[in-house]
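## retry 2 of 3
previous attempt timed out at serialization; input unchanged, resubmitting
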Amino acid sequence: MSKIFRNDVGRKIIAMGRGIAFNKKRGEQYRPALDKYSLQYYRFITHLKFLAKRVFSGAQSIDEVEDEMQAMIKKKYAAASDCANKIAAFVEKNYNYKVSADEKFYLTIHIAKVITK
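## retry succeeded, writing output
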């Protein structure tokens, strides 16, 4: 395990991402049964780890996703998009790191894969 993921802040970002995406809120949860051993879950956690690494290094993702595609995914996976926005808000508030629209797009896709399996 690299130093970045042994860091307390890195663990907090990953735990927070998991918690926001899969917590119970007002008697609801986005997915009733979470398979922590699925490939989709592993990919989501891996994405959170790389997000934490970008937060620590100050780097931004450089992919450019088309606006139409972002709008389509946001509309189709509204609950996952909401989770991604909450993760971004947490990171922005606590670590002063602006999460890009592309980053939110990819988070949305990973979350959608896990919660709509």
